[in-house]
Amino acid sequence: MAASRVLEHSESLQVKSCPKGACLGLCEEVIVVGVTPGNYTRSKDNKSYAVRAAKLLQEEPALININPSALWERVSEGEPKAHNSQMDVVLALWKHGLISAAPGKG
User: Fold this and answer.
1) Any domain includes 61
2) Does the residue 105 lie in any domain?
3) Which of 6, 55, 92, 105 is the most exposed place for a label (fewest CB within 10 A)?
């Protein structure tokens, strides 16, 4: 439900595994407002990328003004790998005020 609400502009983003793993990873780390702690994903990489992006936004809120590819550059530290919409998820959650200021387990 959250994916359809936050990513209403793209049904494909709502069901892709990489953005889904990113979102569930943030939920697992108790970074998404209103989500209870739990085990939500087996995706280690996508979770890690999303958590790093959320922490970057927490440290530098002005990054919200960059595009997903530019945020990916910061998160991946130049790793020659294309992002698969994980940053779209993080940016959308941030813009909707759904990323907490202080990660739970993070």
Assistant:
1) yes
2) no
3) 105
